[in-house]
Amino acid sequence: MGVYMGLDIGGTKCAAVAGVLEGENLRILAREAFATPRSQEEAMDRLCALAEGLAQGRQILGVGISSGGPMDAERGMLCNPPNLPGWSGLSLTDYARARLHAPALLENDANACALAEWRFGAGRGSRLLLFLTFGTGLGAGIVWEGRILRGANGNAGELGHWRMADCGPAGYGKIGSFEGFCSGGGLAQLGRLYGAACAQRGEPAAWMEGEVTAKSLAEAARAGDAAAQAVFRESARTLGRGLALVVDLLNPDCIAIGSVYARCEDLFAQEMRRVLEREALPQSLAACRIVPAQLGDQIGDYAALSLAVEAAGRA
Prior knowledge:
- By secondary structure, this protein is α/β, with parallel strands linked by helices.
- The chain has eleven helices and 15 strands.
- Strands 3-2-1-4-8 form a five-stranded mixed beta sheet, sandwiched between helices. It has a five-stranded mixed beta sheet with strand order 11-10-9-14-15. Strands 5-6-7 form a three-stranded antiparallel beta sheet.
- Helix 1 runs parallel beside helix 2, helix 3 crosses helix 11 and helix 5 packs antiparallel against helix 7.
- The model has no long low-confidence stretch (mean pLDDT 94).
């Protein structure tokens, strides 16, 4: 029995993961990780060595490589990503093909996660799926009829860069951006702004005493803290406005939202839905499921393996 091999490259950690298909489901067999080295050659050498070990002598059917961009996915090259400076000029896919004797694909991590949710998660059966990362930042992947929609030069889905307000928290280096309002980092910024306002009124928020994070805000909001609840309502309003634009533009039948949203749907859904129903075309909104992503903390593994399955299918 052959195995699929996923290589997940991040700014701090790289991982190799082996999996097999069982009908329409994917079973993860094993995973090994290490701290990301400075050299892409060293990283690929170590990843391929791990993959050879995880395969345990079985044929590798396909290799999927997931990483942050920018990249030239067609040539399998990274183009100096901000979290991987100097990683450019080496075709990671050519390296993997030569070393592991299997077809290989490189893809932006948001796109790879979208493919994973379409194939194995919340987007099963969808014709046009939009996946939003809603993690440290806000990115998106679009899968249309089973194919990743990359755009003219691989930058489709960068909706975190949209300016949603003239002022407010920053993301993507832009004040008032969608990412500024709707990401883990953005929620922390909003929390500090609301906390400062509370302090000026002589009503200091207890959650301001430590590090302000999306997690600490969620805990405070669920405990009944009015300021923390207001932070989530503001984020949810912006999320609703942004999703209304997507619904009207793309007419998706499914939007899956990951990470912070998936863990805090109870704090977002009501206000987000209220704004969506006000802003989006009713017919388009009625055709669209908006759901939390299903693959959870393992989505990075599923993403890389989904690319491996795709690579094998194209071979």
